Amino acid sequence: MNVTIRVWRQKNDQSEGRFEDHEAKDLNPNMSFLEMLDVVNEDLTNAGKDPIAFAHDCREGICGTCSCMINGKPHGPESGVATCQTYMRSFQDGDVIVVEPFRAKAFPIIKDLVCDRSAFDSIMHSGGFISIRTGSAPDANAIPIGKEVADMAMDAAACIGCGACVAACKNSSAMLFVSAKAGQLNLLPQGKPEKDARVLNMVATMDEAGFGNCTNQYECSAACPKEISEEFISKLNRDYLAASVKSVFKAVPSTMG
Amino acid sequence: MNILQVLFKTSIGKKVLMAVTGLIMVGFIVGHLIGNLQLFAPPEKINAYAHFLEGLGPALWAIRAFLLLTLALHVWMAIQLTLENKAARPKDYTSQQTLRASYASRTMRLSGFIVLAFLIYHLLHFTVRIEGFGTYPHTTLLDGTPVRDVHSMMVFGFQNVWISLFYIISVGLLSWHLSHGLVSMFQTIGLQSRAWSNFLSKLAVLFSILYFLGNAAIPGAVLAGVVKIENPEVAGYVCPAKCAVCEAKKAKT
Amino acid sequence: MILDSKIPSGPLETKWEKHIADGKLVNPANKRKYEVIIVGSGLAGASAAATLGELGYSVKCFTFHDSPRRAHSIAAQGGINAAKNYQNDGDSVYRLFYDTIKGGDFRSREANVYRLAQVSVNIIDQCVAQGVPFAREYGGLLANRSFGGAQVSRTFYARGQTGQQLLLGAYSTLSRQIGLGTVKMFPNSEMLELVLVDGHAKGIVTRNLNTGAIERHSAHAVVLATGGYGNVFNLSTYARNSNCTAAWRAYRKGATFANPCYTQIHPTCIPVSGDYQSKLTLMSESLRNDGRIWAPKKEGDRRPPNEIPEEERDYYLERKYPSFGNLAPRDISSRAAKEACDEGRGVGETGLGVYLDFKDAIERLGESVIKERYGNLFDIYKEITNENAYEVPMRIYPAVHYTMGGLWVDYNLMSNIPGLFVTGEANFSDHGANRLGASALMQGLADGYFVLPYTIPHYLAEIPRDPAPPTSHEAFSETEEEVTTRTQRLLTNGGKQTVKSFHKRLGNLMWDYCGMARNKAGLETAIQEIPKLKEEFWDDVNVPGEGSELNQSLELAGRVGDFLELGELMCRDALAREESCGGHFREEHQYEDGEALRDDENFSHVAAWEFKGDGNAPERHIENLEYEAVKMVTRSYK
Fold it and tell me: Looking at the predicted structure, is the pLDDT value of residue C163 above 70?
């Protein structure tokens, strides 16, 4: 099969970008979308042109590196997969496929289809953890955790941090990401002691990073390659509200001012 | 961070304000609709209700001020959130698919804006009663006390097809706004799960439809002639046959 | 060169405890004065960075990924072993130790492996406390599954995403330290050289992949946690960007490279479907718990699998290895699949594949149980092949998956260069000639959380308590010069052939001559061909773009340049090791029934190669493997 890709080219965050059309010929429908880009890049290199920069690594849908907006949907037409798991059989012979980078103020473009998602890391630094010193953990079976809770936590933990939620949201909101990360830890007994501080800090960092606000449309969840549910956003809202209200009324130890 | 900072400065806080103000206004419009539906009862009923409300005096003003403040907060937060959301994506996609978002959710700003415009008109029309807005400064006697004839005012107003049409469209848009807003509220204050949300969205749609039908019934009934002006002092009063008052009027002339 | 493993004296069970007790400590107030560079942020790197940061050292952690969370540890599916004996099925530290030693075909260090088994239990505790959502039973306790090479259920798992969850756990503790300022994180930074000052590892030179900036970083010690080198084969289950550059640069600076020929070929991967392929995808070994592997009995049987009657199917693993059956270790299962295909009994379009069939398990347990256990793997299989494995058996074929070889380290995980530590897959120490399933995650985390934090102080306490050398030191300028020259040469080479085309050619040579089965003639051919390919590469490679921006071709060019040298070394090592053991199978050395024939008399040692300059043959050193606690036996899974 043959397709044309209309791909976004941009030298860096400062420069203006534009679309370029490239032909991808003699493709096998079982090729992945990224393998199709490999083919185009080999052609570009052989023609003495600059190949298209695109983020990729594991190519099995788990590292969360790949990040293209394909025909107006993050990670391409199929649901529940990352770009690297999108196969050419999802397109028709002769298609013109529009490929853009994820766009958000908090995700500045580095080059072509590659954007900087370090804002996610900053959110994690501010609270996406349980403070446990190495070597000081009690026996793993000391605290039983019901299967349902463990499974819910696992549902949230499936997040691969790709940023499709931000890319799909018309407000570039990062609520699904933050809610998945916070939700996993808040659900587990181990995460309870730091629950309030966690949500307050993570949301504050999220706000600072310049993400938009959630308008409860759940495009994020629909675009998520791991199909993480918007229920976690509701949980984050609840945990955040509870933490805020508690912070008004709860007594604090004298050492904490 | 104190609670005011949370509410006014953080993304979740602002949305909570949206949700809570929205909820208060939903409470108000439900009460308002129930009040209005008294139009289907004899005129004394609704006129007495209006008289009672006006008799609240300072309390009425407090309620009005509270509602206006609620509305102002709702609009203010909407504007702030919208501006932030626009800023969060400085460059838009060339093409972007809609994956799941309902049509209502995507037109909240538009529906909200039109409803706001209607609301201003509506207040000028029936509450402030400015000349030229189809005002109707009539009184009637209720148990011997002169009270404002709200019944006639409403019927008179809705007998104008254009006013009725504007009213029906706006109430329709408000219902549309609510069909997303109601569910959204629960999500924002954190009382949502997938199973419950399915039920809730259906409930919200049902509520919105009922709300719309209830409201639309009023101008509908007026236009259909089911509800008529019943104050003979008022222009547009169509006399039923063998009416004592008319007979008296006729006799005078 | 004498390779001193520094194994502590005394009985096996108490070596580690004794070693900790004997070691020197760094005063808490002095810890922050010591700087440690950690290259790599996978399980081994992130866990070490977080733990050392928490202890008070000044840590700098580097990764070429845009976030530490993306390291390829994330892709491990099946699980992590630990001798918890939660299943009451007779597991113990000794049994895990013995299984690992035996699985490694008696080519690993006893003391290291015993320590690994000892700390395995702490890892699970640590991860659960971090919030890793391991699978649980209805009662709320942790669930286990079985894995290849073991007859107990000791593998902990989180759906099919165990590596991801463990890495995210390590990443979360690392994130905490970054937030606290004890660890400074350098993402998008690829280490391109190691800096030696007076023979000690004191720094690295990196390239910022987004800006192209070449940077110098100094420290008191350098830790390489940079993973394995399986991408030398081009097609593998590794992430596309996994590479050997950091380790290879250290090798060229004098660190010896141990057992480079030990590569693991994983038996259950999705077969190659075409020339365009960039990546092979693994189907977790855990599938072998419930799936049955078979090939048609008849040669060239092209009927659809469901039309081949039971009596015409050869469940070859169950037939050959009745006691372990489908759970035979990876090297054995892989070779058995290759044999079936070599006999013309392979399936699928290319004839390079065998079936992994769930029909019986679905009949026995129901589809919902299979879905619960392996749902996401079945989904991955469907995405890639467009086939429904609930209805037709999966097609699988072996693929390069892990490298047991790596930089040589002693018991302290320090290489022969003082101050250069190597952890995780990047070192050679714990898996011998073959790694058992669910042991890589265990080793990465053991090294990072529980070994390195105890052993690095031994070194730091012994060196002078001076600040780390300034980056203006001439060793840094010279090293930076090497990096700049090499990068410039690649960019201005003006050749005709793409980097990828060289990678592909190298991969084909390696797979053909240094893959699942190796022989003298083939290896000699490869040792001739690879240097020629390397020469052609430096003559004719075409690297487009500039050095001062994101340039993925340049990144790959540097890596392929190093793979071309490593590939040759692997073949040399495979040629020198005149025996078959674990992942290294020499056709000349096998029993009549085709089982690997080890030569314990002559090859019970680690081979560590020393770089002797470009154009000179590297020198092979040996470290003898002494077995005190276990008796070497012929590995049998029959």
Answer: yes
pLDDT, residue C438, reads: 92
| CB contact B220 to A (< 8 Å) | no
pLDDT in tens, C362-382: 999 999 999 988 887 898 898
Cβ-based burial of A252 (10 A; exposed 0-12, middle 13-18, buried ≥19): exposed
CA C118, C124, C130, C134: dihedral to nearest 10 degrees?
170
Residues of A in contact with C142 (CB under 8 A): 140-141
User: Which pLDDT score, from 0 to 100, does residue B246 have?
Assistant: 66
Secondary structure class of B147 (helix, strand, coil): strand
In this structure, what token pair is assigned to residue C361? 């398990």
Q: What is the rounded average pLDDT of the residues C557-586?
A: 97
Contacts A–B by Cβ distance under 8 A? 142
Residues of C in contact with A67 (CB under 8 A): none
What is the DSSP annotation of A25-88?
-S--TTSBHHHHHHHHHHHHHHTT-PPPP---SSSSS-S-----EETTEET-SSSS--GGG-BG
Please provide the distance, in angstroms rounded to a whole number, between the alpha carbons at the two ends of chain C: 40
The token pair at C475 is: 């060793």
Q: Is residue B93 in a domain?
A: no
Average pLDDT, chain A: 96
Contacts of B14 in chain A (CB under 8 A): 213
Pairing between strand C221-224 and C263-269? unpaired
C494 touches chain A (CB under 8 A): no
Nearest to C532 by CA among C502, C574, C499, C572: C502
- Domain ranges in chain C are 265-401, 481-597
Asked if A184's CB is within 8 angstroms of C279's CB, the reply is no
pLDDT of residue C330: 85
The residue ranges of DSSP E strands in C384-496, in sequence order, are 394-403, 406-407, 420-422
CATH level 3 topology of C265-401 = Flavocytochrome C3; Chain A, domain 1 (3.90.700)
Confirm or reject contact between C274 and chain A (CB < 8 A).
Answer: yes
- Residue A114: its H or E element: strand A114-115
Residues with Cβ within 8 Å of residue B244, at least 6 apart in sequence: none
CA distance B218 to B212: 10
Choose the closest CB to A72 out of B1, B16, B95.
B95
Output the domain CATH number for residue B193.
1.20.1300.10
C42 neighbors C167 (Cβ within 8 angstroms): yes
Q: Whole domain around residue B216: which residue ranges?
A: 3-85+108-252
Categorize the per-residue pLDDT at B136 as very low, low, confident or very high, splitting at 50, 70 and 90. Answer: low
CA distance C98 to C630: 8
User: Quick one: average pLDDT of A55-71?
Assistant: 96
Fold of the domain built from segment(s) C481-597: Methane Monooxygenase Hydroxylase; Chain G, domain 1 (1.20.58)
Closest CA of chain C from A169, distance in Å: 22
What is d(CA A114, CA A52) in angstroms, rounded to the nearest whole number? 10
Would the CB atoms of A62 and C161 count as touching at under 8 Å? yes
Q: Are strands C221-224 and C35-39 parallel, antiparallel or unpaired?
A: parallel
Domain count, chain B: 1
Complex confidence, ipTM: 0.97
